């Protein structure tokens, strides 16, 4: 299995992600796919890891094959011809425990017993998420959870986890432009997606957004109000890992119950989305602005 790290303009997060891979998955080859970052810390980090990892950088000055998360994921899919499985991880995620033979056997069992499976979700569940609490089906034979598509809009696809790239290449899979589009494509292909009862990675809570090279005042206000920042996890202890592996999987693995972010206040909310989405009036204003810009661009093209 090869690991693909997708990066854009968050040097502190990228460094933390790579260091966690080196600590906990030292025997897996790594490819970093950077989407043309301008952050000096990202550029310095990429220079430092060359020789230890393959580094692919999208040159935005040229018409490139790369560009955007899903184009970069397509590049990873097309370039992983020598392996059946690939781990896709983003720069604001972290590996929180060592990967052992127990995990590798779990992945193999899942894919061998589920011939329609194209992906295994490997992140912890989010407490408070309707998709991660209502309508979860537990498969004790393989140690995975399945989401009810009537509850979750992402029951068939998620952008991170272990992908069975061999099966995806068999159907000439092409990633769409959005997660919703990819979820629909996976449904149409009759693919299935399970979520591991033994997760090993997670998004950092309250992470700063990297979607825009320049943030407006409303975006900055939302991140200030939500205390967005850099909160890496303490690695799980051996006792915590043993509990995770040998507990009854009916005990759902919620990140907020198991993981320990450094620097986050005890009563602080854990946010796993752009801060603007959690403040309705800001989110509505930014959506209106985005629609207006799209209409203006369409008129200019005409």
From TrEMBL:
Coiled coil (residue ranges): none
Domain annotation Glycosyltransferase 2-like: ranges: 3-71
GO MF annotations in UniProt: transferase activity
InterPro entries: Glyco_trans_2-like (IPR001173), Nucleotide-diphossugar_trans (IPR029044)
Keywords: Transferase
Pfam families, alphabetized: Glycos_transf_2
SUPFAM superfamilies: Nucleotide-diphospho-sugar transferases (SSF53448)
Protein name, per record: Glycosyltransferase involved in cell wall bisynthesis
